[in-house]
Design goal:
mainly alpha; Rhopdopsin 7-helix transmembrane proteins; 10 helices; 64% helix
């Protein structure tokens, strides 16, 4: 029977891939002193994490990056190739795709390499700060882009002709404001207020939400308020107003149709087919639910780290919400672009392999003969 190899620190995998470690071993065992200097000691309260978990995270990041790159890349490509898409409203959608693309490219690729080359953050303190900063900036910018998209749709659907017309110039200024705000709101850790540090499985970096000193706690309250809670309240207000306006319009249309003794005032609407207003309402609800489902778990974990029971924040519990928040960068192209009729039409034309859009109708035999005659 072959003997199992055991390293000097006594942590190893047996023949059945079970992790074996001596009593008292921790998640921080074997990490060099220079790296331990910027890792919070909280993670030393937990036993060593199975290396296969880190590898699974790496594989998941890889597939997430591929989906993100393809989805957001298609949105940007369709926008650049189709003149009719270059409207102020669609500029916000493309900015969201661009922000999401940067997020997963900068946040995914380093982690993929790190997970297979080393079980802890291998790029040093400076790059940990830069990694956390870029992730925070792109995440905040994506959130704010959804807020602006919500405002744009609110402006058109609810305000109508009384709303402020958004020109290309205004759209460009708003995008500059979004990126500037995102950078400034995430900059304080470089100026001495708040910290960036490795989190969870120690292969990613984010805000250090475990420190209990006044500097760190006040910054986390500030980040929670301006990176998440305030944008959430604003975008929820916009979409609630949109849904209310759509429901009121739909009710008015039905009431008018009833007075006229007809089924519907829309002659081109097929039986059982939802009206455009209802579709808009569904997309609006989907937008808010997507926001809540992907970003709230991470916000809750950070708040538990600030003023809750930190022992609930295990390495895996901390890592999963962080990963979930990044999945929004893959879902956004589907919700904001593919659900848009003109974007869907452009994607069907420019990227036909996606199978998006209506299939061309089959010609009857008489029509086929007519086409042949014309081509002759």
């Amino acid at each position: 029977m072959s003997q199992e190899w055991k390293p000097d620190n006594g942590i190893y995998m047996d023949a059945k891939y079970n992790l074996v470690y001596p009593e008292g071993a921790t998640h921080l065992d074997g990490i060099p002193e220079d790296v331990l200097e910027f890792i919070h000691p909280h993670w030393g309260n937990f036993p060593p994490q199975h290396p296969l978990v880190v590898h699974i995270v790496s594989i998941a990041f890889f597939f997430l990056w591929v989906i993100n790159f393809f989805g957001n890349g298609c949105v940007i490509y369709a926008f650049l190739k189709t003149n009719t898409l270059r409207t102020p409203s669609n500029i916000f959608v493309v900015n969201l795709a661009f922000s999401d693309l940067i997020m997963m490219t900068t946040q995914g690729l380093p982690v993929i390499l790190n997970c297979f080359l080393q079980r802890y953050w291998m790029w040093g303190k400076l790059w940990c700060d830069i990694y956390g900063f870029v992730g925070a900036v792109t995440g905040t910018c994506s959130i704010l882009s959804m807020v602006v998209i919500g405002y744009d749709r609110y402006n058109v659907i609810v305000k109508g002709f009384s709303g402020t017309k958004i020109t290309r110039g205004i759209a460009f200024i708003l995008i500059v404001v979004l990126w500037t705000y995102s950078a400034l709101v995430c900059m304080p850790p470089f100026l001495g207020w708040g910290y960036y540090a490795p989190e969870g499985l120690l292969v990613t970096c984010s805000y250090d939400y475990l420190r209990q000193d006044w500097n760190a706690v006040t910054f986390m309250y500030y980040a929670f308020a301006f990176n998440f809670f305030t944008p959430l309240i604003i975008v929820t207000f916009f979409y609630v107003q949109i849904v209310k306006a759509v429901v009121a319009h739909e009710s008015a249309m039905k009431a008018q149709a009833k007075k006229m003794n007809v089924d519907s005032l829309k002659s081109n609407q097929k039986d059982g087919e939802a009206s455009s207003e209802v579709k808009i309402a569904k997309v609006a609800i989907t937008n808010v639910m997507l926001w809540v489902c992907t970003w709230t778990p991470y916000a809750v974990i950070t708040m538990i780290g600030v003023f809750g029971d930190q022992m609930l924040v295990t390495p895996l519990v901390a890592q999963l919400p962080s990963f979930l928040a990044k999945t929004s960068s893959c879902l956004n192209p589907i919700v904001f672009a593919v659900s848009h009729p003109k974007f869907r039409e452009a994607l069907a034309k420019e990227v036909p392999c996606l199978g998006i859009g209506d299939k061309p109708k089959e010609l009857s035999s008489n029509q086929t003969e007519a086409v042949k005659t014309e081509t002759c």
